[in-house]
Structure formats: C-alpha cells, structure tokens
Amino acid sequence: MRKKTWLFASLVSLSLLISACGSNGNSGGLTKDPVNSPGTTDEEASQKIDELNVAFLSVTGTPPDMKAVEDEINKITKEKINVAVNLMPINYGAYAQQVNLMLTSNEKLDLIVVGSPFGFSSQVSRGQLLPLDELLEKNGENIRKALDPDYLNASKVDGKVYGVTPVRDLATANGFTMRKDLADKHGIDASAIKTLDDVEAALKIIKDNEPDITPLIPSGAGFSFLTSYSWHDGLSNGMGVLPGYDNGLKLVNSIESPEYAALLKRMRNWYEAGYTLKDSATNKSSQIELMKADRAFGYLSKLKPGFDAQESRSIGKEMISATLSNPVSMTDHVLNIMWGIPRQAKNPVASMKFLDLMYGDAELVNLLDWGIEGKHYVKVSDHVIKYPEGVTMLTNGYNLNMSWLFGNQFLSYVFEGEDPDIWQKMKDFNEQAIKSKAMGFTMNPESVKTEIAAVSNVIAQYYLVLETGSVDPDKVLPQFIEKLKAAGIDKVIADKQRQLDEWAKAEGVL
Fold this sequence. Notes:
The protein is of the alpha/beta class. The protein contains 20 helices and 17 strands. The strands form six sheets. It has a four-stranded mixed beta sheet. It has a four-stranded mixed beta sheet with strand order 7-10-6-11, sandwiched between helices. The longest helix is centred in the C-terminal third of the chain and has 19 residues, at 449-467.
C-alpha cells in the first residue's frame, strides 16, 4: 500500500474528519455486555449459526466468483466458529460515504474496514464503533499473537482499542526508485546512493546524458517531490510534528523549521537545474503513466520489502531502489487501514471470532486473498502459486488482489515471480523499524476544527508550488508562514501539544 506524507494526506483525511456529519447511528445503543450477553444457553449457542455482514473496500469491484468463494469460506467458518459471512465489497471511491450511510441508518453491519481516510476518528466520537479490548482478550488470541502490542494499541481512543490493523507493511523507509536500464547504462549504483546529495548526483548524470528523459518526477498525481520523503512524525495532520520521530515529545511547526527550508531550497535548485518535471505543480499523471511513456528516470518513494517488484510489474520496466533512511513506523501507518466492529453488530462476539480467524487460519486467509485452488490459482510449491493455465489477472474470476487487507498477510501465498521469502523480510522490516515516540497518539480535532480547516486551505494553496521548486522559497515561504499563523496554526499546535502531554502521562511515555 502506498503511503502519503502529511502535506498531501492531511488534505484528504482532514476534509473527511471535518466534514463528516450525522447523528449517532446507535438507535438506542448497546446496553448489554457484548462479551457476556445473557439469554442463550451454551448448547443453544453452539448450534446457532450467526450470519455476519462484512463490508470492506475493493479496488476492483465485486469479483464474478465472489459467491463461490464465499461459500467455501462459510464451510470453514461454520465448522470452526458457527459463523456464516456475507461479503460486501464496496468500491474504494464510494467506501467512506456508503459505510457512513449504513452506520447512521443502523443497517445490519457486523464487521467493517475502518481507517483515517474513512473517518475513523469521527466514527469513534459518534459512538459508531465498539471498544474491542474485552472482545480481544476473550476472543482475539490469534490477533494478540500476530500483532505487536504497540500496533494493536495504536488505535486507542481515550484508552480503548477501536480498530485492529492487518499484519502487513507497518513501516516505511525513504527511498529513490529508478529505471534499472538507465542506471546500468550510466554506471549509477543504487547501493551507493544513501542521501539526497547522492540522488542529486544521479539526477545530474541523467540530465547531462539523456536529453529526452526527465530525471525526477513526482511519486503520484497531485504529489509534490516531498510527498514521499519524510523526516518527522506528522501526527496525522502535520500541524505540529515530532522531528526525528521523538524530540522529547515537543512539537514544532515544521513549516518554520530549518529542515523544511533546506528541503525547499534543494527542490528549487533541482527545478532550476532542469532535473525535475517542469509542470510538477499541476501534473495529473501518475508516476506509472510517466514511466510507461518513457519520459522519466526516477522518483522519491516510500520503500518496503517487495516494492521494486511491485513497481516493476506496474510500470513494465525493471525498477530498482536506493534506500535513504531506516524504516520508521508511526500511528498513521497503523490507522490507515484497520478492521472495526460497528455499534449495531448483532453479535459482537461472533464478529470478533471471525476477525480473529483471519489472523490465524491460513486456509481462510488464502480463500479471501486468492480464491479457490484449482479455479483461481494453482500451487507451484507449498507457499508459491500462479494462475491456472489459460487464466490471467484480467480473466480470473476472483481478482481482488488485496492480501494486505484480510487479517494476517504473512499467512498468504506468494505469486510466482515474487520473492518467496517476502513475508519473513516484511516481518523483519517491521521489527527493525524505528517506532515514533508518539506511536498510539491520535489528536481529537474537535476543539480546533475551525482553525484546522483554515490551515488546511492555506496548505493547499502553497505546498505544491513550494515542494516542487516551482517558486522561490526565499520569497514565498515567508508568505506561507504568515498565512498559516493568521489561519490559527499556533492554536492548533498548542492544543495538539496539550493532548499529547496528557496522552503521554496517561500511557506512561517518558
């Protein structure tokens, strides 16, 4: 999954958080203990099949063979946990709106994907999600074994867990990704590139020797060159950050920092030297489109194990990456995608049992990920699969290709051609990552939502032109800072600092 840094992501996440509205979808609330609900005997409970509506986002729509896969899943779940599931994929672009409507109208909904891009904080504050602590303690053994406690606790709000992240890439490293053919042609050694100075030297080589190739492009449509390069924990909205992911938990305004000024100066120098895409501030093409069109050499990126293979498949050219930082993990990585149980869930225990099975049952995980063996894939070895003869990604009847979503990705098969050791490498990557000192902290924006909206508007006006080098930062950065202060950024940072201090005291973070 591609990660966004704060200047871009805050615009998306904040607009969702601020504009989200609607009453509590509880329709009377849950007045009984979801873990120890009375009214049925043990014998009755053991014979009863709970039917769960499970909503999740999909980037490919509803696969034609969804019902066949669902039937196979239910053979497992009925036998193991007396549960049957109705899988409800929702198109990614419509997911937040449709789930919000389902929550506010109290539709039958038992397990859903939640996360910062989909209004997680607002859902918690409106009482639309159940706290999961007791359910996890009694029915979440696989989850507790699979997830580092820091990642499991990262979704806490007021001391209670409201979401469970999949086991996946939970950290990122700064990187520079480039075409291998051009790097080889000009003797550019990816392993020798460690800093932005080294990146600059590579860009110069391409500029001097490849007149039809742009050395550096943004890492996505509407992105700046710094969207995929971070040096701090932005704590969700980027308004008050922790430099170096620690800073003694003392927030600073990154826009006023010497580090940001230096990065903007570098971007301006690259722009003036002709190293960057000239229309980057208005660019609407993805890095994949620009690479496929043979127009570019490389882009700053967020690395994880398997990233080069992922980009190579998407672009159709072999890509290699240089690593520019150690991996880092922050709350934002965890909150980006999680699973939660809605307040209106008919049987939260059953919901948790199914969720927990996704973290411990390899057969279930691979049905969700890849479909039915022999029909949607065949095995090459115990853990490696490929499409059956005559079947392609386009003709496959179960083409979700979202193994990062369904519970424990480390139980998932690997497709032929990918690194068969990818999940061990991903596990090591997560474990080696530097964890932000503020891991687990989430700001409640309610008391300064007016200022946050105003600051977001100012950021939208300035960040792209500055972070693509399109304007002179010596002239424009002071204007940016002045307008941020007029919009109330100091008030936002002060309130975030107060909340961070209270969180640190409650959690015993020194």
